[in-house]
Every structure is written in structure tokens, then in C-alpha cells.
């Protein structure tokens, strides 16, 4: 239920972005922070909750996260300004990060080893169902009620699940070995955690600052771009240098020196970057250019998760037979082809043909994700499976963050240049050619990133550690 609610919320908000922009008369750069602050918070905090679970207990963290998520949803539905909405999304994201970090760990703690794959598969089903129902529910609510209604749904469900599961979650926490607060303080890498937070935050702030300035000062983007590269690389260089020398690093750098692991992480991040290029901009295209009502926008957007729901089990079985390299790389090849097809969308494209292209993208994502995750988890020992799971989730969220920020940046720069400094909120039917040209350029860059992900996936090692070709311990 926690996974279902958090994924449904993520997919609902994407459909609602154009409507929220109109309500608050906000720019694209400000509006996209509704998504960015959610992803940024989750990305930063996943590793923290993994460490704190040894002190607080997995069940306790998960239950509190469930309640905090419901509280954040209620506050979001009442937000009077877009800036307060963004702040309340931060509160909601803290709760979601607690659930996301502890969910797989709870499954592992209650399922016997021979049924672990089945247990983790339930999370995949809940994820697909959440992503599928989100766009449709959001579209119907926006058309017949208000965008605030998309936050009302998770409030009673979250509170009810918390109350029903409180005793069970407390029992799980009581049955786990925990460490003392003093042990946690000695072991926890505070400096590394701070550097990790700073590096991710600076990356996103630099990208969005360029996006917000491109519509106001013509000379700002080149200047910002010139200074952005060293400002972007410096915190990451400091983080890596410090983590390579500390005794208990928050980032296990030796794992990244193994090609099967580093390529799995890189290709996972790039796949989600490509996916969010589409999820962020497609609702604006369907609303502004195709002029579909919100409920039909939701139906078209459902093509991606619907395909994932049916194809993901097949991808898992193929991985068991022939290994991750061929299956995962084939999936990213489909993503590349889908991005090339989406980069050719026109003003007269039919909703059915758009949905087919989105379904092709979903097919590629489904073929990639499960084999890639299984290869990463199967190549490490049991002691490293927890941190590997957290890092896979972090790589996916980093991809979502970069996809949201880069898609907004490239589209805003292109649209502003073609219209003489306009933002998407200033769109009129006369700007349709500029919109399409900016969309084609943005999706074209997304295709380039898909090609990089394809190359990274192909360069993975098929047989390392306890992984054998076609078989993993998970």
C-alpha cells in the first residue's frame, strides 16, 4: 500500500502540472519544483534511513513515514500558494523516502530466502498499479473536481493503513537487532552525508537556475553555463575524495570499481532520465498542442505503465534464461527507438499513435529494469545487498531528478530562443511551431542519453561475484 500510494502520487502530479501552472500563474522553472523537491528529498534521504534503521528499526521508520506522507498530502491539498505547495511536497517526500528505503528491507525480513523473489515481485506489481492508475485518476479528478483532489485520496488511505499496520510494524522492529545511539554516532558518516546532500542539491539548483533565467536575460544562460561546469564538478570531486579516505563511507566506492555494478547504476540512472524527459513534457504537449482534456491526457499517459505491468514479468523470466546483458540492452534499444519516434510528433498526431509510441517506451523500460536490478543485486554478497538496493533506488531517483531538470532546461532555453524570451505559461496558438521545435530538440537529446545508456548496459560484465550467467541469488 505504501509503494502503491507513493507511485500513484508521482504519476498523478505529472498530469496536473499544466493545471497547477495556470492556477498559480507560475513559470515552468518554478512549477517543475513540485516534482523536483519530491525527487530531490527522496534521493538525498534514502541512504540516511537505511543507516538509521539499525537504531530505530525498519518497521518503526516505515510506519512513521506512512503517517508523515498522509500528513504531507493533506497539507498539499490546502496550499494557498505554489511556494507553500512546494514546501508541503517536501514534507510528503520525507515520508515517501522512509517508506521507499524500508519497503524492500521489510520484505526481506519477513519472507524466507526461497520466496524472496516472489516477495519483491509484489513491490513491482504495486509500483505498476500505482503508475497505471495515477494518470487516469488524476485526469478524471482534474476535469470533474479540482487538482487539489489528487492529494485528498492518499490521506484517509495512509492513515487507515498506518493504524491497521502499527502493531505489525512494531513487532517487526522489536524482532530486529538494533544498535545503540552511541554506536550509530561513531559509525555514521556525517561529513559524507553532508557532502552527498550538497553535491546533489547544487546539481539541481544550477540546472533550474539556468532554466529560470533563460526567459529574462538573453546573456545569462551562456554565462551561467560557463561557470556551471566547475561549480557542478567541484562538490562531486570533494565528495569522492573524502569518501575514498574515510573509514565508514556513506558511499561504498569499491563497489563502483566493479564494472558490472557501475554500468548497472549508470544505465539505470540514464534510463530514468530518458523516461522523465517524456513524463514531464508530454502532458504539456497533449494539453497545449493536441488540446486534450485532462482525463484523456491521463488515459494516453497510462500507456507507459500499462506496458510495464504486462512486460516486466516476461523480462524477469528472460533474464533467468539468458542473463541481463542482452535483455537489458535490448530494452534500452527500444527506449532509444521510442525517443526517436516521439521526437517526430506533430500538431496533427493522433492520440492513439502517441499512445503507441509511449507504450513502446514502456516496453523498453520494462525489458531493462528488472534484469538490470537483478544483475546488480546478484553480483554482490548478502552483506552488501542492502546498500546495493539503496543505491539502485538512488540511481533511479537521480535519473528522475536529472530528467526533470534537463527536460525543463533544454525545452525552456529552446522555446525562449524561438519566441524571443517567452515562457511556456505565455503560450498562444501562434507559438505552436516554436513549441514543437523545442519539443523535438528536447526529445532528440533524450534519444542521445538513451544511446549512452544502451552503451553502458552493453559494457556490463555478465558474470561476476556470485552471479552466473542467467542465474542470480535473488
Care to describe what's here?
- With 474 residues, the chain is mainly alpha-helical.
- Helices cover 80% and strands 0% of the residues.
Please give the structural blueprint:
Layout: H1 2-24, H2 28-31, H3 33-56, H4 58-77, H5 82-110, H6 116-144, H7 149-152, H8 154-174, H9 181-187, H10 190-213, H11 220-243, H12 253-256, H13 259-289, H14 294-301, H15 303-322, H16 324-342, H17 351-378, H18 385-419, H19 432-458
Helix pairs in contact: 1-5, 1-6, 1-13, 3-4, 3-5, 3-10, 3-18, 4-5, 4-8, 5-6, 5-18, 6-14, 6-15, 10-11, 10-18, 13-14, 13-17, 13-18, 13-19, 15-16, 15-17, 16-17, 16-19, 17-18, 18-19
Keywords:
mainly alpha, disordered C terminus, Growth Hormone, Chain: A, 474 residues, globular
Which descriptor suits the 3D outline? globular
User: What is the level 1 CATH name of the largest domain?
Assistant: Mainly Alpha
The percentage of residues in β strands lies in under 5%
The CATH superfamily of the largest domain is identified as MFS general substrate transporter like domains
The description of the largest β-sheet is: none
Helix-strand sequence: HHHHHHHHHHHHHHHHHHH
- Number of DSSP-assigned strands: 0
Q: Any idea of the CATH topology of the largest domain?
A: Growth Hormone, Chain: A
Distance N terminus to C terminus?
Answer: 23 Å
Judged by helices, strands and strand pairing, the structural class is mainly alpha
Mean pLDDT: 81
The parts where pLDDT drops under 50 for at least 5 residues are 215-221, 464-474
What CATH architecture label of the largest domain applies? Up-down Bundle
Helix percent reads: over 70%
Rg, Cα atoms, Å: 22 Å
Helix count, DSSP H or I runs of 4 or more residues: 19
Number of domains: 3
Amino acid at each position: 500500500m505504501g509503494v502503491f500510494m507513493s507511485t500513484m502520487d508521482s504519476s498523478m502530479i505529472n498530469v496536473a502540472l499544466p493545471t497547477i501552472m495556470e492556477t498559480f500563474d507560475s513559470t515552468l522553472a518554478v512549477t517543475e519544483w513540485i516534482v523536483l523537491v519530491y525527487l530531490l528529498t527522496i534521493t538525498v534521504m534514502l541512504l540516511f534511513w537505511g543507516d538509521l534503521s539499525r537504531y530505530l528499526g525498519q518497521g518503526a521508520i516505515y510506519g512513521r513515514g506512512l503517517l508523515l506522507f498522509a500528513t504531507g498530502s493533506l497539507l498539499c491539498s490546502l496550499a494557498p500558494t505554489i511556494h507553500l505547495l512546494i514546501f508541503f511536497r517536501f514534507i510528503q517526500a520525507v515520508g515517501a523516502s522512509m517508506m521507499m528505503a524500508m519497503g524492500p528491507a521489510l520484505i526481506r525480513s519477513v519472507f524466507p530466502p526461497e520466496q524472496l523473489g516472489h516477495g519483491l515481485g509484489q513491490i513491482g506489481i504495486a509500483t505498476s498499479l500505482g503508475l497505471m492508475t495515477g494518470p487516469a485518476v488524476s485526469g478524471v479528478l482534474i476535469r470533474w473536481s479540482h487538482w487539489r483532489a489528487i492529494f485528498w485520496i492518499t490521506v484517509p488511505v495512509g492513515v487507515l493503513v498506518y493504524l491497521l499496520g502499527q502493531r505489525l510494524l512494531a513487532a517487526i522492529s522489536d524482532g530486529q537487532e538494533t544498535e545503540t545511539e552511541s554506536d550509530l554516532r561513531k559509525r555514521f558518516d556525517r561529513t559524507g552525508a553532508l557532502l552527498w546532500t550538497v553535491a546533489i542539491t547544487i546539481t539541481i539548483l544550477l540546472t533550474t537556475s539556468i532554466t529560470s533565467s533563460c526567459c529574462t536575460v538573453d546573456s545569462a544562460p551562456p554565462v551561467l553555463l560557463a561557470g556551471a561546469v566547475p561549480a557542478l564538478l567541484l562538490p562531486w570531486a570533494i565528495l569522492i575524495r573524502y569518501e575514498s579516505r574515510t573509514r565508514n563511507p556513506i558511499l561504498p566506492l569499491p563497489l563502483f570499481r566493479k564494472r558490472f555494478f557501475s554500468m548497472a547504476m549508470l544505465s539505470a540512472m540514464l534510463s530514468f532520465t530518458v523516461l522523465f524527459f517524456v513524463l514531464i513534457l508530454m502532458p504539456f504537449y497533449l494539453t497545449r498542442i493536441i488540446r486534450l482534456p485532462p482525463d484523456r491526457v491521463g488515459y494516453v499517459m497510462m500507456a507507459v505503465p500499462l506496458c510495464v505491468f504486462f512486460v516486466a514479468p516476461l523480462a524477469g523470466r528472460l533474464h533467468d534464461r539468458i542473463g541481463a546483458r542482452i535483455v537489458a540492452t535490448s530494452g534500452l534499444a527500444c527506449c532509444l527507438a521510442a525517443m526517436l519516434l516521439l521526437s517526430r510528433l506533430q500538431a496533427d498526431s493522433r492520440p492513439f499513435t502517441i499512445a503507441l509510441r509511449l507504450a513502446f517506451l514502456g516496453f523498453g523500460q520494462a525489458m531493462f529494469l528488472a534484469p538490470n536490478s537483478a544483475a546488480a543485486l546478484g553480483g554482490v554478497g548478502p552483506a552488501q545487498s542492502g546498500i546495493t538496493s539503496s543505491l539502485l533506488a538512488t540511481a533511479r531517483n537521480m535519473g528522475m531528478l536529472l530528467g526533470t531538470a534537463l527536460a525543463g532546461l533544454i525545452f525552456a532555453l529552446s522555446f525562449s530562443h524561438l519566441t524571443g524570451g517567452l515562457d511556456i505559461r505565455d503560450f498562444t496558438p501562434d507559438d505552436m511551431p516554436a513549441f514543437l521545435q523545442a519539443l523535438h530538440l528536447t526529445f532528440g537529446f533524450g534519444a542521445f542519453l538513451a544511446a549512452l545508456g544502451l552503451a553502458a548496459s552493453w559494457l556490463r560484465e555478465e558474470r561476476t561475484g556470485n552471479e552466473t550467467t542467467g542465474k542470480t541469488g535473488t
